[in-house]
Structure prediction request, 345 residues.
Amino acid sequence: MASIKDVARLAGVSPSTVSLAMNGSPLVKHETRYRIMQAVEELNYKPNQAARSLVTKEKKVIGLFLLSGEESLTDFSQPFSHTQDTLLVEMLPFVQKTLREADYSILVDLFFSGPQTEHPENHQLNRNSIDGAIFFGGLVNEIQLQNIHNTKVPSVLVCSRDNNLDYVDTDPKEGIRLATQYLIQNGHHHIALLNGSDRSQVSARKLAGYRQALEENGISYDESLVESSAGSGDHALSAIEKLWDRVPHPTAIITASEYTGCAALRFLYDRGLSCPDDVSVISFGDGPVTAYTAPALTTINLHKQRLGEEAANILINRLKNPKARQVELIIPPELTIRDSVKCIL
Prediction:
């Protein structure tokens, strides 16, 4: 394995000059830098990251944290019972690719956001372990946001927002408005909303989008058609059962996530009902499974690939430019039409 001394010898410079060149120092002339990089490529030299960190004070590690409302360990052997969001899992390949291209490794963990949590439970969230952090999901409260601020770790939020942190988000209000409007255009007026957790930032925005579409079409808001769910399949089934026990039954259901959209299909199947013949379903979020359910779910596409890539690029820029202006990026959602909505006009 080649060493920095081998590179220096081949390039005809000192090892310290190689180090300066590889760290982007302006003190190295363009011609010298070019000669060094040719030697690096020829020798396939890989710098010792631990030694490099001692000089640059960078760990070259980014923490990826899924915001979670659960303070106990999740039993993933019972996937229909837990409430973990799939947001991070689905964005991970795109975030990881972008960070790897910038020479960063990743650390993945949960970040609890229960209402009683006054201090960060994750000991990795500090400048001694990571250079920056990306937080995924809407389950975050003011205490947790303040904890993130206090750590002084450069951070980006994905699908949640804060006035003092960089964030990239979809538009939940517009997404649910699109779903509601599409159902109304197909003749549905008795539309149920299976919303997310009351502790999630996005739930209020989703409800606002639902109400806006109803109002724009002259349909009265009926609070009995709205239920909240913690996000697990079991909780979603319970919430849908409450909606279904009210008469008249809804002709369509909008769910807060693709996971709860699958739960709605399961509920209808268990009751001997057909989607979309008896009840239409639209889910907020276009996960991998939604195209393969029976029927394939009509969804609100959040553009998760772009959300992940943008979050990684925003954080990389923040690390390079700590005093740059706050980034507040909103990526508009789109309706993906499949087979789960029936026109009843």
